[in-house]
Amino acid sequence: MNETKCCCDDGSAKGISRRQLLSLAGWGAFFTTLGVSLLGTVRFLFPRVLFEPPLTFKIGLPEDFKSDEKADGHNVLFVSEKWKDSQRVWIVREKDKIYAMFTRCTHLGCTPNWFPEDGIFKCPCHGSQYYSNGVNFAGPAPRPLDRFAVTISDDGQILVDKSKLYSIKEFDDPNSYIKV
Amino acid sequence: MKDILKKVTESQVWKSVFRHGYADETKNRMLQIRSNVFLHLHPFKMPRHAFKIRFTWCMGGVTFFLFLIEVITGLLLMFYYRPVTEYAYLDMKFLEFDVPFGIILRNIHRWGAHAMVATVMVHMLRVFLTGSYKPPREFNWVVGVILLVLTLLLSFTGYLLPWDQLAFWAITVGSNMARATPILGHEGPFAIVDKYNDVRFALLGGTDVGASALLRFYVLHIMLLPLVAIILMAVHFWRIRKDGGISRPL
Asked: Cβ atoms within 10 A of the Cβ of A173, count?
């Protein structure tokens, strides 16, 4: 082999022919464009703004939840259905606390009904039943109804935050109820 | 690296998809075209004159390319656009000002549509000037004319969808022309219909450019017209080959 020879027979240097270089550049540009377009398309599917309802809402001052009713066997004075349709939340007033219960059956996610005369919740889908404080006692439900975070906002009103959910083991968490 | 490449290209999965390799022989090249669902509309062999761009102008090919761009960008725009009067304009603005890459997709769709109308017409001009409409290609000329009308209708129906002032008044003016249709337009000569059952009513789904017109134009724009266009394009490309291949300089 003649080592001083720097050009191949087709007139190119270092073993890459002009044809190969152009081919590489052409396909390189093609696949780069395709790749960048694909990335842009994927990004397109994730908008920066969502038009979803806010996850927090105010339900009034703690004083609004006073009641002369007698507590039932589970310390519950009353269950408010005022925010059931709009927010999927029951407000439960116990003797010394207020909490916001998620109206979602812990079995498969249906919405139970509140029967004030019996003081229990019944789920229409598979017959799960809960006491007024949300504790399950019949049917397939595996645990009591979950609760949302509640805090006192700056104007003194109770603020329900649906982005944070508490289940049975976390019911002692001070953010899961308002002390009265 | 070469071992991996060899293992991949000789695997059953690879071979079941890519059956005919790159062997540069006449028979193999024919098989590559024939066994591919997308390419089999083409002739096995391209005659040398088919690549004479100064003769063909490649305007039909460019139009098809633009159509593919319109399909892809249009499909993506559909993810954010709702054809109801409450949201159409807002969704268009949302796409333009907030959705990532929304502004470029919308403008590719828009300018691609403008370009497609132009290239279709230039294609038609070339076919006319080279006499390529003459027998045995006269049927394909008719198919092409229908495709031209479909392109114009796609542009017209897409015009309304932004639901802004331009869209509203453009379609108001455009659909008012249908009033003057002979026999079937209520203000046209020999009208046998009134304003509640003439062609304008059928086009708008009402007597005015309103919610039902928006929905009708949307369905025509994204479904019916493209579907018909795709079928006719398949016929159009197939007939080129059946009518003796792309026309050549005499």
From this structure: 12
